[in-house]
């Protein structure tokens, strides 16, 4: 039965990790997968997470099933983190959600949910977008089309072209936006641009679908949620996939939330029954441990303060690496203007070099990045910065 199956190439992002791990060069640098690293190259468990886990181990009394939505405490705390406590959509009882296995689980559940509402609905995604959006949304039945987003020639957002394409998108179509820290390009929408998109959604009737995988990695927890919060109070319906992988450092625990803002409370109750049915038919219910950690942090003032301080530290380190790499590339004599890296947000930027140059950096210098030249900034450090910048200068020179 399975003999005829062909083998597939490794995933373009996760596959890099295996090649990197097998590389014996002591100078190797991993700028591939989007995982935060500290100066020593480690991805530490946050202190707030450790404290929450210690408490959970002592207080947990049962491992009995929770249910397809996860716990109410997790959902309430996460809705408030994303929308802000007292948000008009929460007050109007228009919001429902489910804890999911990571942001990927949220994207998949929401895509299947949308497909139930309109079979084979079209979803517009940015060009470029995160590579895994395509299988996550497409395999659920949605038809994928793209709108222009990032201009590689100027290394910046091409908002006019984006608007030009989206102005023909109407009711029954979904449009996927990145809430902040765009993956892969790091070029984010300004507040004014969010307002333009909100007006378009109101006028044309398309349904916004926001992927929020990096809340807190751009400017702050609140600033990074500006677009989501604005959309949630301005449009009748909205889908949001939130991830706790990066901001809580819970990558392997798989914690996220699939959230829907509905027209009214009655539609919300009906819609939630469909969403929970999608969950039950996929994986029955989410794993509990990671969600319990998030709930415990968000519902305890002192743990929350510790977590926010750690999140700020991660964000500030990435931002200082962004300025550092711009300066060091110039000092190493790398041809071109890389100042856009400093203006961009979050874990990623495109270096803007060719796939052949990316290959050369990997083969000759053991520097690993995705073929598109996306670099995960947190993989840089004071100790590898010079080697990285000199290598880039040599390859480009
Ligand atoms: C990335 O883009 O590197 C991360 O979102 C991790 C992943 O699963 O691809």
From TrEMBL:
The entry's keywords: Aminotransferase, Pyridoxal phosphate, Transferase
Pfam families according to UniProt: Aminotran_1_2
UniProt KW Plastid keyword: no
Quaternary structure and partners: Homodimer.
Top-rank taxon, per record: Bacteria
Family as reported in the entry's similarity comment: Belongs to the class-I pyridoxal-phosphate-dependent aminotransferase family.
Cofactors demanded by this protein: pyridoxal 5'-phosphate
PANTHER family: ASPARTATE AMINOTRANSFERASE, ASPARTATE AMINOTRANSFERASE, MITOCHONDRIAL
EC class (word): transferase
Ranges where the Aminotransferase class I/classII large domain occurs: 27-391
PROSITE patterns for this protein: AA_TRANSFER_CLASS_1 (PS00105)
Enzyme Commission code: 2.6.1.-
SUPFAM superfamilies: PLP-dependent transferases
NCBIfam families registered for this protein in UniProt: PRK09257.1
Name used for this protein in its record: Aminotransferase
